[in-house]
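Exam revision sheet. Question 4 asks you to relate a sequence to its structure. Input first:
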Amino acid sequence: MTSVARTRKLVSSMSRSQSLIGWALIVLVGAPPAMAPTTAGAASCQAVAGKFAVHRIDPSGCSSPVGLCYAGESHGSIQGQNLLTVTNVTLEPPDAPGMLLLIGNNVITTRFGTVHSRDFILQAQGAPGEPVDFAEVDTIVEGTGGYAGITGRVTSTGTSAGDAAEGTYFGHICRP
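Answer key, structure tokens:
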């Protein structure tokens, strides 16, 4: 399947607002892992998928320079406790009016070790407490324990309302 066909299939499975966010993410940060070409070393990669839920926590418990931190749980291929530390927020980034771009560092602590990722989250703006859609691309930058040396990319979509968000993720992790 070509990357264009995979893109159309991915976008057709999303709601209208999620697909707009998904297209904007593709433009801003590149194709998600399901659309990226595979390499000869792909034998050491595996697909991951699951669900997650997070909620905003008191920023005194984390090191966010913008005062935004989220904690929660991931279920599925990667199961554990999440801590997202937002490092940058851009209101209405170029070519994405009505959106927020959040950039941060996420750590998922599992019983096998930790997974560290750099997250790029594009979220629709809405009235306070109103449910809005988001999409994100997370690049795995390192791991510890059973995840030592891993790389990969995970794409997520979901809904955020007030101080909580939930969604699904899919992608791949590669072991050395």
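Marking note for examiners. Confidence is low (pLDDT under 50) at residues 1-40.
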